Amino acid sequence: MFTYDTVAEAVDGLKQRGYNIDFNLEADKIICTKTPLVLKPADFEITEVYRFEGESDPADEAVVYAIESRKGQKGVLVNGFGVSAETIGEEMVKKLAVRH
Question: What global pTM score does this model have?
Answer without folding.
Answer: 0.85
